[in-house]
Amino acid sequence: MSVLVYLENWEGQFKKNTWEAALYASKTATMQGTEAIGVVIGDINESAEEAGKYGLSKVLHVNDAALASFDANRYAQAFAHLAQENNASTIIISGTFNGKALAPALSIKHNAALLSNVVDLPTNVNPLTVKRGVFSGKGFNDLSSTETNNIVLFVPNSIPLEEGSGAASVESASFASADEKTVVVESIDRVKGKIPLPEAERVVSGGRGLKGPENWTMVEELAEVLEAGTACSKPVSDMDWRPHSEHVGQTGIAIKPNLYIAIGISGAIQHLAGVSASRTIVAINSDAEAPFFKAADYGIVGDAFQVVPKLTEELKKFKAAN
Amino acid sequence: MKVLVCISHVPDTTSKINFTADNSAFDKNGVQFVINPYDEFGLTRAVWFKEKQGAQITVLNVGRAETEPTLRKALAIGADAAIRVDADPSDSFYVAQQIAAVAKEGAYDLIIAGRESIDYNGGQVPGMVASILNFPFVNACVGMEVSDNEASLIREIDGGKEKVKASLPLVIGGQKGLVEEKDLRIPNMRGIMQARSKSLDVRAPQEIAAKTSTGSFTKPAPKSAVKMIDADNVAELVRLLHEEAKVI
Ligand SMILES: Cc1cc2nc3c(=O)[nH]c(=O)nc-3n(C[C@H](O)[C@H](O)[C@H](O)COP(=O)(O)OP(=O)(O)OC[C@H]3O[C@@H](n4cnc5c(N)ncnc54)[C@H](O)[C@@H]3O)c2cc1C
Ligand SMILES: Nc1ncnc2c1ncn2[C@@H]1O[C@H](COP(=O)(O)O)[C@@H](O)[C@H]1O
Fold first, then answer.
1. Domain at B42, CATH number
2. By residue range, what is the domain housing residue B134?
3. pTM to 2 decimal places
4. Whose CA is nearest to atom 8 of ligand 1?
5. Which end of chain B is less crowded, N or C, counting CB atoms within 10 A of the terminal residue's CB?
């Protein structure tokens, strides 16, 4: 028996997210009394040995032209093959965009139960039981598998990253390609220099209180000192002040950063649904009655146009001193 | 083109969520149900196909009779026919198998589902349906055009977007961007009248065993009271974020 984990890379780079998956898998494997094996797909420009720091002793590297671009069905086929070869009954995947597309397809091919939207390490391994988020942040549910084969799709930022020492051995592996109905990628348009929201540890978010897209410079400046991702409320993206990909909430992206700073956002229930899992929430709003203050850890009543630049200044001072 | 739009019947986004006294289930008392917001975008996109290039739209729900008003609403928005598979949607695998069976029998060219349901937030059903049927699958789909049995699609990825092509039949997990918020259709009186005479076919489910079982439900721990900081003392916030919250 073993646990298999997808070590995703982005244009050849691993991220914190990758190592969170590795750690999640090695902890799960320990609970099951077995070992965890990583799977890397495609060209990488850094070594996968790093996975050893998060408890993996072995990484399988598959570099096959058929997997050059992401396709849910074909990737699922590759994973099902590797799971079979390595006698892996549990597969761990992080809930990135590709992870969320891969997991359901793989659950069919591997004849596995899929436990998704998981917010912590498994609470039991026999039967495999997890805590999952339900009703968009408004509840949790204990979900158990009734199968031997399982896939756990966890929400990024669910477990704290601990770095140990050690290096994993990297072996190349192949997969038997069969005829799968795939999609053909024509072009990729990546926003450069931005931290993707689902994995951002800190997020600075603006709402309609900021009055117009021209006022986002101060949001970006604050995000820059904090090394944070930027987000927005739904009306802001509906009005095209900011791209749709920044819209957080019940109908946007659900995030759980360590720090979420909401500026000029009222705190409507649908907005909170996507951000209330954040560890620490700061609300900055000119209206002392804004509902966001009920959901926040720290609040400042004030005009964002004065408070935000001051906050950026203070953070710069703090950084210089620490 | 035959389009199947999968409709999940979910609590309105403003609903207060409560669980039954023994925490074994979601308490539906006093909750308003709506078409899953992600599915609304897909349904409106399907109506555009119908209007611009011709399409026949069937909406599908796996659920009990209580979901019929939601299906009628979808008919009023512009779907031509509805199917309800009469079963409790016990888990994603179960639902996906039911949808795949309907899709196979009806030989649909395009299966539109939502990226996730806002009740159990599984995000599993469309990908499973695609894999069961061995159809190409595009998740987090924010744009779609179809011509001559081929679709051009745009999907969200971490930190960007990807343009892809796929042949029909195809499954997507859709969201805002398929159409914009302002373009969402709402039922008008004429639509509501017409919906009454459209067919709503109730079918018996396939015999399928679920792969998961749900245990108890809990609510998030209540937040401790907010600490207010004076707008003239922003340095204090920085101190608290560093020393107390330890997030910087
Ligand atoms: C089905 C459905 C789904 C939805 N999904 C989402 C979702 O996923 N995400 C989401 O965000 N919303 C969602 N909404 C919308 C939600 O109900 C609210 O309308 C929205 O969140 C409000 O956005 P806002 O706070 O930016 O704007 P507003 O409600 O207009 O709030 C602006 C805030 O800015 C403050 N302000 C004004 N000027 C200043 C200033 N100078 N300095 C500081 N503060 C100032 C005001 O006091 C106010 O609190 C959804 C709604 C529906 C019906
Ligand atoms: N009971 C159901 N009946 C019909 N479609 C469903 C049902 N449950 C989920 N779906 C579809 O699958 C999508 C994703 O749902 P889920 O995987 O449950 O998050 C939804 O947006 C619907 O399009």
1. 3.40.50.620
2. 2-217
3. 0.96
4. A249
5. N
